[in-house]
Amino acid sequence: MVSLAATFGRGAMTNHWRDIRHADLILINGANPAEAHPVGFRWLMRAKLDRGAKIIHTDPRFTRTSAVADMHVRIRTGTDIAYFGGLINYVLENDLYHREYVEYATNAGFVVDQGYEFQDGMFNGFDEEAQAYDPTAWTYQTEGEDGIAVVDIDHPRSVLNLMREHYRRYTPEMVERITGIPQDQFLEVARLVGEMGQPDKVMTIVYAVGLTHHTTGVQLIRSGALLQLLLGNMGRPGGGMNAERGHANIQGNTDHAISWEILPGYLRIPAPGQRNLDDYVDQSASKRSHPNSLNFFGDNYRNFMVSLLKTWWGDTATADNEYAFDYVPKPATNSSWISIFDQALQGRMEGVMLSGMTATSIGPDSNQVLQALTNLTWLCVMDPFETTSSEFWRAPGINPAEVQTEVFMLPATHWIEKDGSFTNSGRWAQWKEAVLPPDGEARHDQWILAELFERVRELYRQEGGSFPDPVLDLLMEYADPLRPDLDEIAQEVNGRNLTTGERLASFGDLADDGTTTAGDWIYTGHYPEEGNLTKRRDGVQDPEANDPTGMGFYPNWAWSWPANRRILYNRASADPQGRPWDPERPGIAWDDAQGLWVGDVPDYPPDVEPGPDAPLPFIMTGEGTGRLFTNSVADGPFPEHYEPIESPVQNPLHPEVSATPAAFRYDERAGRPNRFGTVDEFPYVATSYRLTEHEHYVTQHVEKLVQLQPEAFVEIPAALAREKDIETGDLVRVSSMRGKLEVRAVVTKRLGPLQIDGQTVYQIGIPIHWGFVGIRTGQHWLANALTPFVGDASSRTPEFKAFLVNLEKM
Amino acid sequence: MAQITAGQAYGFFTDTSVCIGCKACEVACKEWNELPGNEPAFGDGYDNTGSLDSQNWRHVQFIDNVPDETSSTGQGKAWLMMSDVCKHCQHASCMDVCPTGAIIRTEFDSVFIQPDVCNGCRNCIAACPYNVIAQDEHKGVAQKCTLCYDRLQGGMEPACSKACPTESIQFGPVEELQQAARQRVTDLHEQGVTQARLYGEDSSIYGGLNAFFLLMDEPEAYNLPNQANAVLPQRNNLGGYLGALGTAVLAVFGGLIALRRRREPVADGPAGAPDDAPAEAAPETGAGED
Q1: What predicted TM-score, i.e. pTM, was given to this entire model?
Q2: How many CB atoms lie within 10 A of CB A259?
């Protein structure tokens, strides 16, 4: 989500599932929606069936998605930046970009300050000691005191010209050398993509964790986003950069700050040294760099933060104490997923609570994670089922007698046993009811946490402690503070006007004077006085009434953040005069008679007339535009191809800087020995993935799904299997520097060999779903035993999708 | 969908060109019909179900023809997926051979095995040209897709089509499905997908299949009998039956002559032969296109 926020202003799928049916061309990269999102996939099929849209699936594997795509392009895993970079180059060199859109809605014309440089694989601003870039080294040339950027698209240092220069190296020949896609096939794709820069054409890019799970993950996504901006496809129905989220409510998790670096609503977590709200807002909020930028997020940052603080600490939060800003933790160190287990490995973690996931299975380098859990004093698992974490002490290879960690298993309710909302990939929050009563002693997660909190509070009350105030003063304004209702929490998230006591209908009403609350400002308006809008179900039972635009927005079906908008950045669906780029597929349009924008809920002031001084279309960025160039990511203002940390080849672009210099190598930094393998010992590329029959690890408890996929296996290219005399069903050992699997082989041509810079590269496929708990407990191999303990520079996301292994027949 | 009414023929149009092999149909079928399923066993990684049987009334076949090239056309050609099911044939040989009358044609024109009438003789299992039917060893009866007879009676479409996310499995009145299928083939041909073809939508396959298919390859690729082979045995053997009838008649005459010569009473044996032939031929008229 870092990537989309850095490029457009918000970290979410820009369109929504149903909207994909409006596309003319669908690029799928790093995703396998037919298997991972079979229900949403219907809309890709509708585009194909109803519009004759073409689907191009570019993936290391020929999957069930490829089977119904028009074209499958086999690519080496982790090289999509070279692919998108090649397309960017093709579009720029052949003048196929949507010029009017690019000039209006992107920062193409912004002039970059002197000092920007890219040479031999390195951007300027790298600190060798910290092994990190200083992103403030990538700025615009400004004029005057107020930080307004110079805009001149013909300037040699304009973003567009620097971009041309940067991607000129990504020729079809270079694309072939890096990705393994033959030039003629690449050009076939490029020709189709090139047509999508016309105003009456639109393309969507659909992606998932196949792009995210790399040390260059943020930039992999950004490279696709740049292409979409150049083609003028952002903000438009049928267009966008569409992240498919991994389970029913992962978008909701992100929105409510499951990531350590944000507070609810994508407000940044305060940093050490910020003494007051002024410091916080100054260092966190985007700043206006164009006179016509609305800078909505930046300008309202303080309103959102104060309303959040008022939600948490109520009357204690006053103007005099900076609304209890002191109460918010200001973490000095990274607390992302791998960091937590790295700290445990280093013996700096006493206990861990796990909810809604199983650390043993989901993290990279499972053997190291198991060691980390062994180092804990206690581990508490809240889950409906036993998991590989609650049972880690009896994992194969671990002697329970030697594990000192005390493990608590708290039976939690399954989602089917509780109400509450799911927020899907398209940002629709949809309320559901409980289907079954809780089983046995199971309690809702929020009840467990609430009671735990009250007990800790009681300890503070009785025994004191250092800085007890944030705990003592926290509001638990529920009918039963030990058993909060999800409906009550939804109202709290929505927020209210403290003067009238009424729930708010819009985040536009949030104030920084302590008169409003909002537990998550992007959800303000989902539960106004009239009721819980996520329960609305005006859908296809009456399309005429429920879909007045005919564009499939169905505004009274559930509720989507922000403000029930269905397509983000939809101001960019119309030209500067307010006319849709494609009248057949309008997002919003300016209606002169009404003096209003009509169509979808505008991502723009609803009554501001188009004109030369009207605000620019991307209201969440300081520029007012989409960002082709940005300093909001940690590893470069433009995406550049780097090899995975473990790769069989040197980067043909700059062999000296083959992998990204900014990746976070945990073992190295903690002083532990390196756990990376080399191509001599581990000659094959591997990539991990899900199968449609299972959902992560939890469905190992579901009989009918275990019948469909009963046993762990790896997929092996037929040519390699012949070399090794392996047939489907044989037992094979796949090993990396970190661990091994001993599982059955599935031999197939769906994973073929690639020619990379003159050498043959084989890719091996590793489905992830098995462990040592579940119905078939013999299946104890953890796929992530193979994967490396390394993270992306910006998001610290692990590199699950590209690593080196060896293969032996057993 | 429109109301489901008794007296109308219903069926499935399974469009394999949009099947994504998700097996939601398999699971939905087992859940609704309370089929416990077989003991989990590794098949080939993607198809671990193996075949239609007493526990699997939908089965997604995977046929891997992926070429070695780095880029290939999908379009349902390279990796064929097809959700197989009972075809609910017009000329249903299972029904023909059922000695107890357990297999009936319902008011929805589907072929249904009444579990309480089935005596577990397995004749239907041998007779089915699609290997759809199998014995539930626990219950001792033959089982197969019921077209969700109980759901239809309750006005609901079958579980598999309800669960199919891509509309690969469509349920409806057979005539409507036939029209939709012919249109779909025309569209695909216009898009250059010339290998698309229908299977069983007309009377050429066992008198017509109420559950018919759009295929992306020859029927043989999906282990389906082609048009030349897809006829009921009795039709192929009509000559044989006539021969048998002739022989029987001759035998009767021969017997009568012999009896007359011996001046003995008429015995049971020779008279039984003529009875047999009509008994075998009768289902052919019985299973006609009514």
Answers
A1: 0.93
A2: 18
Nearest CA distance, B214 vs chain A (angstrom): 14
Mean pLDDT calculated for residue range A148-159: 98
For A139-150, what is the mean pLDDT?
92
Compute mean pLDDT per 10 residues along chain B, 290 residues long, and list them.
91 96 97 96 95 97 84 75 97 96 98 97 96 96 98 98 96 98 94 92 95 96 90 56 63 65 48 38 34
pLDDT digits (tens, 9 = 90+) for A21-65: 999 999 999 999 999 999 999 999 999 988 999 999 999 999 999
Q: Best interface-test mutation with A: which of B42, B77, B164 has the largest number of A CBs within 10 A?
A: B42
Nearest residue, CB atoms, A38 vs list B64, B75, B165: B165
Residues A67 and A189 in one domain: yes
Are the C-beta atoms of A222 and A633 separated by less than 8 Å? yes
Whole-number mean pLDDT of chain A?
96
Residues of chain A in contact with residue B167, where contact means CB-CB under 8 angstroms, are 42, 45
The reported pLDDT for the residue numbered B1 is: 64
Residue A524 lies in a domain: no
A692, A711, A749: residue with CB nearest B22: A692
Instruction: Kindly report, residue by residue over A525-535, the tens digit of the pLDDT.
Output: 999 999 999 99
**ipTM of this predicted structure:** 0.92
A254-294 confidence digits (pLDDT tens): 999 988 999 999 999 999 999 999 999 999 999 999 999 99
Distances (CA, A) of A444 to A309, A454, A607: 25, 16, 44
Q: Do B49 and A715 touch (CB under 8 A)?
A: no
A71 and A213 in a single domain? The answer is yes
Specify the pairing of strand A203-207 against strand A25-29: parallel
Cβ distance of A39 and B26 shorter than 8 Å: no
Contacts of B74 in chain A (CB under 8 A): 55, 57, 62, 65-72
Same-domain status, A784 and A666: yes
Substitution target from A56, A64, A183 for chain B, most B beta carbons within 10 A = A64
Task: Kindly state whether residue A515 falls inside one of the protein's structural domains.
Answer: no
Q: How far is B50 from chain A (nearest CA, A)?
A: 10
Between strands A803-809 and A684-689, the pairing is antiparallel
Q: Which of A64, A185, A706 sits opposite B20 (nearest CB)?
A: A64
Q: List CB contacts (< 8 A) between B68 and chain A.
A: 718-719, 749, 752
CA torsion, ordered A8, A13, A16, A17, to nearest 10 deg: 150
> In this structure, what CATH number is given to the domain that contains residue A70?
3.40.228.10
Other C-beta atoms lying within 10 Å of the C-beta of residue B29: 26
> Are A344 and A449 in the same domain?
yes
Chain A CB contacts of B49 under 8 Å are: 707-708
Inter-chain CB proximity A71 and B71 less than 8 Å: yes
Cβ contacts of A57 on chain B, cutoff 8 Å: 74
Nearest-CA residue of chain B relative to A76? B70
Counted across chains A and B, CB pairs separated by less than 8 A come out at 144
Under an 8 A CB cutoff, do B70 and A74 touch? yes
**Per-residue pLDDT, B181:** 98
Tell me the pLDDT tens digit for each residue of A174-203: 999 999 999 999 999 999 999 999 999 999
Domain boundary residue, one of A193, A216, A246:
A246
Shortest CA gap B203–chain A (Å): 27
pLDDT at A470: 97
**A106, A616 Cβ separation under 8 angstroms:** no
Burial A534-570 (b: 16+ CB within 10 A, else e): bebeeeeeeeeebbebebbbbbbbbbbbbbbbbbbbb
Residue ranges making up the domain that contains A408? 337-429+436-463
